[in-house]
Amino acid sequence: MKSHRNEFLNELFALLAVIVLVHGVYVGLVRPRANAVLAAQQAAMANDPEYVPERSLYVIAKDYEQETCFVLSIWALIVMGFRARAVARARRLLGKDILNLPDGMRVLPEDARGYLRHLETLAAPERQVLLPRALFSALERFGATRSVQDASAAARNLCQMENERLDSELSMVRFVAWAIPAVGFVGTVRGIGESLQQAHRAVEGDVSGVTAGLGISFNSTLIALSLSILVMFFLHQLQLLQERLVLDSEAYVDERLLRHLQVR
Fold it and tell me: What is the pLDDT of residues 103-137, one digit of tens each?
């Protein structure tokens, strides 16, 4: 419970830090550069009617919808970084022989208590990882029921529950991956609305207002969809790492413990 509270606080502080950092970059760099580029382009078009302005990244990313998309994307990547670091820490235990069981060694039900005490000597952060918990669950069930099948079922059930827990912890990241294109659509609607408000000027021959509104629409959609693809890519990679961790932990229990269990 305490670890979950710490994770929530870390993610909350990360969100606040990202908001401050991204907004500072926008106020100090992106929007001033975008305004300068737009002013230069307008001056060039006034002097040369055939001038075709080049697309600038500052202009594409200058609006509030794009800023919100960057905040959500960076925060989602940071949260996934926390999760990936936890997976990497858990995978390090897969390379260790935690129980120190040599080949040919047999573990009887009355021996389970000794191996449980050995697992309890692990550091607290390691005891919370999936692999030691699965080993502990299998040994505890084996000592209580004297059944290898029950020990295998206990380890398998714990791995399945851990897989579901890891998957549920990504619900916020999935929401962010959905929210990013939704925010981009908000920018699209806002840009179209501003274009419609300037439609009467387009009839008179001034299409600058209409083109500016359409620019907001297309730019917000472009940024939102691009960032959404990026977030979804890393989300699927993280899901793959978590699923491999659960499968490899279950295989570890089968190979390093269950095949050593024996009932007289």
Answer: 878 988 898 899 899 898 888 888 889 999 999 99
DSSP for 243-258, written as a single string: HHHHHHHHHHHHHHTG
- Pick the closest to residue 177 from 238, 228, 233 (CA basis): 228
Q: Which residue has the tokens 């670890």?
A: 3
User: In whole angstroms, how far apart are CA 146 and each of 14, 98, 119, 256?
Assistant: 48, 22, 19, 18
Alpha carbon distance 143, 137 (integer Å): 10
- Banded model confidence at residue 55, pLDDT cuts 50, 70, 90: confident
Q: Is 263 helix (H, G, I), strand (E, B) or coil?
A: coil
Q: Are 16 and 75 in contact (CB under 8 A)?
A: no
Question: Rounded distance, CA 144 to CA 112, Å?
Answer: 9
Angle at 219 (CA atoms; ends 216, 222), nearest 5 degrees: 145
